[in-house]
Design a protein that fits this description.
four-stranded antiparallel beta sheet, single chain, 42% helix, 19 helices
């Protein structure tokens, strides 16, 4: 069968046709769907793990002389096998439906286009389970449409999420439960996204170790709209190498092609991409990018990947530029994905934003510091301002509760930062207290009231009257005066429940990132 352009395959060097291919299809024909042409699932004879006839690309200069990593963090060789697994049958998927519903219900997601929420499905689960099992077993199940919602991105713009119906999410989760044991053991050790026992923190720990070992330049790759541009045909061909039950492949194909309902009610077809929001999409994204992982491992690069965020660590800027050009060619030529060249770069780790963090080598002691990135610091300040607005209409205690909720979540994620983050945390605490002082002053309204309240709080009368009435100060300027700081001292807000980010960090045992986190069992 003739290789189609949409597959974006690369013909190996040294391999030439010696005779015309029999029964070749004419070019330009329409690609047949999975249901009509199952042989189309096996078009990919050459992938990253099957390249014996292809000439290996030249490694960068530094790759030949770099030392081997310690065993605790060394990237293991790919254990991928082409032998088919005896799992992932439709009968096994049907048997997982009840377990899948419990997982979906625990996530407490929103309703899809059919407006049936989790509680409604729970109330009729017995009847739904029987009908769903019958449809899946008979091959008549058709997924419903996906509701598209837009959420703001921290870097600007909007990210599209797809919310399937609750019943469709249950089917996706059942399929995921069956596929996960097939793929999870063979995923690369440097892949940390959406995997049990791995997280952003383990990814940062591995990146920190690479910088400690002297790889102080990073090739930061940004995939443009990755989830919206995954080629369906290539994904299905990859799945067919391990999933032997054709009915499961047909089911996945229908899920991928489910229509999308936009916020204005317009329904659009879905010819490519894996919509974010369903239980199956994270696993499918890792399956798609696993070929990239194995290619980077074959080239002996040191890399860290979390979903579509990939950093490759090299010793020099020159090597980084060469690696960038080579890997971009592989991603766009072989995988059929698009690299965002405006956001991708070769730079020092301290200049880049990776999962909210940046890595910086301390010039005196030589240790690698884990710090919030510039974008994270800016977002922290913006959120503090949003939660302490000048027109706050509630009480001081309610404002403090709102700030505390955000700080607790922020520190739960960024608590792994190293000691140098204390400078940022102290400045953040001071900024929060000043904004709260301005809110209190506004609540007191008149200058006469402000002076009297400060006297009650322990400020000398002469100082209070003079500082409040001298000049034409705004409430924001007045909040930074010594008299107000002495009256509304730090203990005033601590007694009302305000949490200190510095104290939260000091109490967090995870603030020291230990490389031992990377000793993870993959089997």
């Amino acid at each position: 069968m003739t290789r189609q352009k949409s597959e974006r395959g690369i013909v190996p060097e040294g391999r030439r046709k010696t005779a015309p291919t029999e029964a070749a299809q004419p070019r330009g024909g329409k690609a047949a769907p999975v249901e009509q042409q199952p042989l189309q699932l096996f078009l990919w004879g050459e992938t990253a793990e099957n390249q014996s006839a292809r000439k290996a690309p030249r490694a960068d200069d530094e790759a030949e002389r770099r030392p081997r990593l310690p065993a605790t963090i060394a990237a293991p060789k790919s254990s991928h096998t082409e032998e088919p697994a005896a799992a992932a049958t439709m009968a096994a998927v049907i048997a997982r439906l009840s377990e899948a519903f419990q997982n979906v219900a625990a996530n407490k997601g929103a309703a899809g286009p059919d407006r049936m929420d989790i509680e409604t499905v729970r109330a009729h689960w017995t009847e739904i389970l029987a009908e769903l099992s019958h449809q899946l077993g008979g091959g008549s199940y058709e997924p419903g449409m996906i509701r598209r919602v837009w959420i703001p991105k921290a870097s600007g713009g909007q990210r599209g999420l797809g919310i399937p119906n609750v019943v469709d999410r249950v089917v996706q989760e059942a399929v995921r439960l069956e596929l996960d044991p097939l793929y999870e053991p063979t995923f690369h050790a440097s892949s940390h996204g959406f995997r049990k026992g791995r997280s952003c923190h383990t990814a940062i720990a591995q990146a920190q170790q690479y910088v400690e070992d002297g790889y102080e330049f990073v090739v930061d790759l940004d995939l443009e709209k990755f989830f919206d541009r995954v080629p369906h045909q290539r994904l299905m061909a990859t799945l067919s190498q391990r999933v032997m039950d054709r009915s499961v492949l047909v089911l996945i194909g229908r899920m991928l092609r489910a229509g999308v309902v936009l916020p204005d009610g317009v329904v659009v077809s879905n010819e490519e991409g894996v919509p974010q929001g369903g239980p199956l999409s994270p696993l499918l994204s890792n399956i798609v990018l696993d070929e990239l992982d194995r290619e980077l491992d074959r080239r002996k690069h040191r890399f860290v990947r979390y979903a579509d965020d990939c950093n490759i660590f090299v010793r020099s800027e020159r090597a980084g530029k060469r690696v960038m050009a080579s890997v971009v060619g592989f991603i766009e030529g072989r995988l059929g994905l698009k690299v965002n060249h405006a956001k991708s770069a070769v730079a020092r780790p301290e200049e880049r934003h990776f999962l909210g963090f940046s890595l910086r080598r301390e010039p005196l002691e030589g240790q690698v510091e884990v710090l919030p990135s510039k974008r994270t610091r800016e977002r922290l300040r913006e959120t503090v301002i949003e939660r302490t607005p000048r027109n706050w209409g509630g009480t001081l205690l309610s404002c403090i509760a709102s700030v505390n909720a955000y700080l607790s979540g922020w520190m739960g994620f960024f608590g792994i930062c190293t000691a140098r983050v204390g400078v940022l945390l102290r400045a953040t605490d001071a900024h929060i207290r000043r904004r709260l002082r301005a809110l209190v002053l506004k609540d007191w309204k008149r200058k006469k009231t402000v002076a009297r309240k400060l006297i009650v709080l322990g400020v000398k009368p002469r100082t209070a009257w003079r500082r409040v009435y001298e000049g034409r100060k705004s409430l924001w300027a007045l909040s930074a005066t010594a008299a107000v700081e002495r009256g509304l001292r730090n203990a005033y807000f601590a007694e009302r429940g305000l949490k200190s980010t510095e104290q939260l960090w000091e109490a967090d045992p995870r603030r020291v990132v230990a490389p031992v986190q990377l000793t993870l069992a993959l089997g």
